[in-house]
Design a protein that fits this description.
Order of helices and strands of chain A: HHEEEEEEEEEEHHEEHHH
Largest sheet of chain B: none
CATH superfamily of the largest domain in chain A: Cupredoxins -  blue copper proteins
Number of helices of chain A: 7
Structural class of chain A: alpha+beta
Radius of gyration of chain A: 27 Å
Shape of chain B: elongated
Shape of chain A: elongated
Order of helices and strands of chain B: HHHHHH
Number of strands of chain A: 12
Helix content of chain A: 25-40%
Number of helices of chain B: 6
CATH topology of the largest domain in chain A: Immunoglobulin-like
Structural class of chain B: mainly alpha
Largest interface: A-C, 87 and 92 residues
Radius of gyration of chain B: 18 Å
Number of domains of chain A: 3
Strand content of chain A: 15-25%
CATH class of the largest domain in chain A: Mainly Beta
CATH class of chain B: Mainly Alpha
Number of strands of chain B: 0
Oligomer: heterotrimer
Largest sheet of chain A: 5 strands, mixed
Distance between the termini of chain A: 36 Å
Bound molecules: heme-A, dinuclear copper ion, copper (II) ion
CATH superfamily of chain B: Cytochrome c oxidase, subunit III, four-helix bundle
Helix content of chain B: over 70%
Strand order of the largest sheet of chain A: 3-2-1-5-8
Strand content of chain B: under 5%
Number of domains of chain B: 1
Chain lengths: 310, 185, 555
């Protein structure tokens, strides 16, 4: 069932949940069918019509009561046992391992710090296929929730309360996720993309992320680089190889390599970037990035610069 | 069954839950102390202890008042009620002194989590004492103007006020132990 | 002695009846008038909450919609949830209990009529205070459970949340006062003969429910006070940046919030337990078990709160405790479902509109209950919490449960309250529109959640299947609008031109049907003798009175 990610898992953790879910859906449907049938049969048989017999005055039957107390209870005990088993399969213990990746929720974007390589990414997480990755999930402000349904359970990102989950992907591909805990105005556009790559592709991606993009020295892009310093962009963003090293907004070092900007609110195209810089609210209303009242020329120069950030 | 007595008993059941919550908040942050004043450094258990004795004594005078009322000794009732009001008011004065002292040392409700939970907990208790005082003062006023008639309804109401007052005291026993005694342990 | 009781018309007009016109209502301390005022205020707030629901659905009808800006949308769903819970369901159930219970126990009024009036006016004041926030810089916008630190001034700086806190405090105090009043009324004012084992089940469940309110609402009030200290006095009880704890708020809120969801269903169970037997022409099956399971649910409801927090990372041991208790609560609920269903068997079922709502309740509530159990299976919750699957769950229990039961109860008691019948033909329309609209709107939310759509988003990307399901759901909401309008029309029509009801149009058997419709100010001139659970039945069939039949069955 493509299109239904919770039933279409791509990791062993998500798969264990999906199996349980299908089983429970079947159980639920059977119980529903039972109740619905009982009611329907009664409606048809005991309708008040010409010649219907008098209602029989009965007050109850303790034996029946015991039956419909004990049988559901037994069923629930069985469900409980399966639940316990799936808990361990879908949320394996951390067992003292250091996390591979620290994911930090911000209003309204995701920061991803690769703790071993030092790569800092935003909104787009690359992982190698087939390897379980341990995430540490945190928050910089309010409560968020990291959720990529095809890869596993969701987990809250709570300030002052770091959480851990495993994710992994069995096949290369792009997996969509989202912030699942209401976190303010742009909770809707706080989406996540996880890109699972073959080890070789992942290594290439890693190399590119670790490289420092050269600062353009000529043309419009150079003007843009200058503007970036003057227009206080440096107060919030990081671009390696430049003085910009703040972490209030996403790291822009490799912006041009991303598929979307502003956590999924728009595709990463020059036109959208231009729109974003002219007025971030036009793409993502009430976002925390201010409108700098840039002129068209300034915005074009900045876009040109951003496009060099491969 | 007497209606007012039943109603007040139910009411204090709900109040108990309310205080339980505030106490949990206090205890919770007691176990995670941050920077700044704590119960051990900020409070004076001895002085508050003395004022607490006044409050506990007021439960005793309330019992005497009830006994007087049952015996239809209206003068005695009046005096015991007034004694109760006095003791309760003194306790509130003690609390006011304590707050003023803390405030002078810069410990206000937003200073740290100890201060917040301390002031919220004891403040709401103080408010309950105050409400109790008003209720008792009304009964005392009735007694003073000889309007107590000894009807069944009135006896019920009298007992209800008493139950409430003992509850306020009992809550203070818990708060005093947790906030002040725990601090010197 | 079970001789026929002679009924005499009302005696002296009461104190309140001396006033005329509007003042007779404003100054009233009569439980019937106060109950009616509760219900009328609900009508107003239901319209507001419903219009908010429609705005939500219009905004979500198509992907990438920019009709409402995010902050407005957040205010609207926060107000929708808060309104429906605190200003619709709670006061509706309170109003129906306040109206019906003194009559059902043969009392003249509630135990404390003035306190009763205070509860109502405080409730109304709380509602107005909440809505006043719209004019005071913006409504609350952190959702109906206002998670910290989003609800702290650092992230929600308009005054909306402060209004929310103050309004909910008023509502909480009102509910507690109402609960105390109910308990004292039920315990002290029953007619002689009506022992606790002979109480009508609606009264039973309201009694248990009142204890739930008494225990749960103070928890909310305490949490609200701490949040208020944070918001007004710059404290940091719930702000992690200054050493506070965001999770403490969640424990507090759900310590109230879970009992609250049962507070919203127990009286509904009670109404179903009245309506189904009457229209089946039989006593309720397993009275003792239905009553006892209510008590079990009430106790269990205080042990399950953290099932709303499965995603916060509590650790599997804690998780499993709450999994266990949440599953356990399905058992006593199932007992009720089965007893209602079996009551139908060997009956003679009259398909009044009231009964149709009650029957659809059984089926619709079961859907909501079962998805509730699927949340108790914690790995499923890890996938589906905070998605539209959850929105589906709670609308099935709240709309498919509580609201359908309220409609059943209204069709049942309207003749008593107004003296006139609600039109059955328009009632059919109302019923079928409601049930089809409800399923169209909310059933499709299950697949939406499974497809990954989170709740509380003001818009969503155009992913495969999302647009069409949302559009259909929006259409369903308009079907519901039609159903509500038909209902309002029915009330209007019936009040002006409805058939005269008479004392006991349904041939029912609890005491409220022994007096005139509407009842006189004093309720009863004479209360019939109560020797069993169905006094009017016993009166009508002295040779087949319940006590005899039961004795014969046991003997
Ligand atoms: C009237 C209100 C009402 C009722 C009655 C219920 C009933 C139940 N609810 Fe629900 N619930 C809500 C209102 C309600 N809920 C609301 C409003 C929320 C969301 C709050 C928010 O986040 O905004 C919520 C959320 C919620 C969650 C949290 C989900 C999350 O946030 O991730 C959970 C988790 O366990 C849950 C479980 C249950 C269970 C187990 C029941 C059980 O009581 C159901 C029992 C009934 C049945 C099971 C059906 C009948 C039984 C049988 C026919 C017997 C046989 C059955 C079996 C053997 C299974 N509910
Ligand atoms: C009893 C409780 C109750 C009821 C009855 C309803 C009824 C409805 N609800 Fe509600 N809902 C909640 C309780 C309830 N809801 C809660 C607690 C939340 C969670 C909030 C949160 O996340 O914080 C929620 C959230 C919620 C959402 C999710 C919002 C989000 O997460 O972004 C949606 C989305 O579709 C929704 C839709 C509806 C619809 C279409 C109805 C319909 O059934 C409404 C039908 C009624 C009408 C259509 C009214 C008719 C109008 C009139 C009679 C007025 C006529 C007069 C004039 C026009 C002047 N609700
Ligand atoms: Cu972050 Cu929702
Ligand atoms: Cu719950």
């Amino acid at each position: 069932m493509t299109g239904v990610p919770t039933l279409n898992p791509f990791s062993p953790e998500a798969a264990s949940i999906a199996h349980l879910f299908v089983a429970i859906l079947l159980v639920m449907f059977s119980i529903f069918a039972l109740v619905a049938t009982l009611v329907t049969v009664a409606i048809i048989r005991y309708r008040d019509r010409e010649g219907a017999v008098e209602a029989r005055q009965e007050f109850g039957n303790p034996r029946l009561e015991i039956i419909w107390t004990v049988l559901p209870a037994l069923l629930l005990v069985a469900i409980f046992i399966f639940t316990v088993r799936t808990i361990h399969a879908s949320d394996p213990p951390v067992s003292g391992r250091a996390p591979d990746l620290r994911v930090i929720g911000h209003q309204w974007w995701w920061e991803a710090d690769y703790l071993k390589s030092g790569i800092v990414a935003a909104n787009e997480i690359h992982i190698p296929v087939g390897t379980p990755i341990l995430l540490e999930v945190e928050s910089a402000d309010v409560i968020h929730d990291f959720w990529v349904p095809e890869l596993g359970r969701k987990i809250d990102a709570i300030p002052g309360h770091p959480n851990h989950i495993w994710i992994s992907a069995e096949k290369p591909g792009t997996y969509l996720g989202t912030c699942a805990e209401f976190c303010g105005n742009q909770h809707a556009w706080m989406r996540i993309v996880v890109i699972a790559q073959r080890p070789a592709d992942f290594a290439a991606w890693q190399r590119r992320q670790l490289s420092v993009p050269p600062v353009p020295t000529a043309g419009v892009a150079a003007q843009g680089a200058q503007l970036f310093r003057d227009q206080t962009c440096v107060n919030c963003h990081t671009i390696s190889g430049t003085p910009a090293n703040q972490r209030i907004g996403p790291d822009l070092t490799h912006l041009a390599g991303r598929g979307t900007i502003a956590a999924g609110a728009a595709a990463d195209t020059p036109a959208n970037l231009f729109k974003w810089l002219k007025d971030p609210n036009s793409i993502k209303p009430e976002t925390h990035m201010p409108n700098f009242q840039l002129t068209d020329a300034q915005a074009r120069a900045l876009v040109a610069y951003m496009e060099t950030l491969k | 069954m007497p209606k007012a007595k039943l109603a007040v008993s139910l009411f204090i059941l709900s109040e108990a839950n309310f205080f339980l919550l505030l106490i949990i908040a206090y205890v919770f942050y007691h176990s995670y102390p941050g920077a700044g004043p704590t119960a051990a450094t900020a409070l004076n258990p001895l002085r508050t202890g003395l004022f607490s004795i006044l409050l506990f004594a007021s439960s005793a005078t309330m019992i005497m008042a009830a006994a007087g009322y049952r015996a239809r000794a209206h003068r005695a009732t009046l005096w015991w009620l007034l004694a109760t009001v006095m003791l309760g008011a003194l306790f509130l004065c003690g609390q006011a002194l304590e707050y003023a002292g803390l405030y002078q040392r810069g410990i206000a409700v937003n200073r740290n989590l100890f201060a917040t939970t301390f002031f919220t907990l004891t403040g709401f208790h103080g408010l309950h004492v105050f409400i109790g005082l008003v209720a008792i003062a009304i009964v005392a006023g009735l007694a003073a103007t000889r309007r107590l008639v000894g009807s069944e309804r009135e006896a019920d109401a009298f007992e209800a006020v008493g139950i409430y007052w003992h509850f306020v005291d009992a809550v203070w026993v818990v708060i005093f132990s947790i906030v002040y005694l725990w601090a010197i342990l | 002695m079970s001789g026929l009781a002679v009924r005499v018309r009302a005696g002296e007009p009461s104190e309140a009846a001396a006033h005329r016109g509007l003042l007779a209502w404003v100054a009233s301390v009569d439980h019937k008038q106060i109950g009616i005022m509760y219900m009328l205020s609900v009508l107003l707030f239901f319209a507001l909450g419903g219009v908010e629901a429609l705005l939500i659905r219009i905004q979500l009808a198509v992907p990438n919609n920019h009709l409402l800006d995010p902050d407005t949308f957040n205010q609207i769903f926060t107000m929708h949830g808060t309104t429906m819970i605190f200003l619709v369901v709670m006061p509706m159930l309170a109003g129906m209990s306040i109206y019906a219970i003194p009559l059902m126990i043969g009392a003249r009024d509630v135990a404390f009529p003035r306190l009763n009036a205070m509860s109502f006016w405080l409730q109304l004041f709380g509602g107005i205070l909440l809505y006043f926030s719209f004019f005071a810089g913006g409504a609350p916008n952190a959702g109906w459970f206002s998670y910290a630190p989003l609800s702290e001034p650092a992230y929600s700086f308009s005054n909306g949340l402060t209004y929310w806190v103050l309004a909910l405090t008023c509502l909480g105090i009102s509910s507690i006062a109402g609960a105390i009043n109910m308990i004292v009324t039920i315990i002290t004012l029953r007619v002689p003969g009506q022992t606790i084992r002979r109480l009508p089940l609606f009264v039973w469940m309201t009694l248990v429910n009142s204890f739930l309110i008494l225990m749960a609402l103070p928890v909310l009030n305490g949490a609200l006070m701490l949040l208020l200290v944070d918001r007004l006095l710059n404290a940091h009880v719930f702000t992690p940046a200054f050493g506070g704890s965001a999770l403490l708020w969640q424990h507090y809120f759900w310590g109230f919030g879970h009992p609250e969801v049962y507070i919203m269903i127990l009286p509904a169970f009670g109404m179903i337990s009245e309506v189904i037997p009457v229209f089946s022409g039989k006593p309720i099956y397993g009275y003792g078990f239905v009553a006892a399971s209510t008590v079990a649910i009430a106790f269990l409801s205080f042990t399950v709160w953290a099932h709303h927090m499965f995603a916060v990372g509590m650790g599997h041991v804690y998780d499993l405790f709450f999994v266990f208790t949440s599953m356990a609560i399905a058992v006593p609920t199932g007992v009720k479902i089965f007893n209602w269903t079996v009551t139908l068997y060997h009956g003679r079922i009259r398909f009044t509109t009231s009964m149709m709502f009650a029957l659809s309740f059984i089926v619709m509530f079961t859907i909501g209950g079962l998805t509730g159990v699927s949340f108790a299976v914690i790995p499923i919750d890890w996938q589906l919490t905070d998605t539209y699957y959850l929105v589906a769950h709670f609308h099935y229990v709240l709309f498919g449960g509580t609201a359908l039961a309220i409609f059943a109860g209204l069709y049942y008691w309207f003749p008593k309250i107004s003296g006139r019948m609600l039109d059955e033909r328009i009632g059919r329309w109302h019923f079928w529109l409601t049930v089809s609209g409800l399923n169209l709107t909310f059933f499709l939310m299950h697949p939406l959640g499974m497809m990954g759509m989170p709740r509380r988003v003001y818009t969503y990307p155009d992913l495969p299947g999302w647009a069409i399901l949302n559009m259909l759901s929006t259409i369903g909401a308009f079907v519901l609008l039609a159903s509500v309008l038909v209902f309002l029309w029915n009330i209007y029509r019936s009040l002006t031109a409805g058939a005269i009801a008479g004392d006991n149009p349904w041939d029912a058997w609890t005491l409220e049907w022994a007096t005139s419709s509407p009842p006189p100010p004093e309720n009863f001139a004479l209360v019939p003798p109560v020797n069993g659970r169905r006094p009017l039945w016993d009166l009508k069939y002295p040779d087949r009175a319940d006590e005899r039949v039961e004795a014969a069955l046991e003997g």
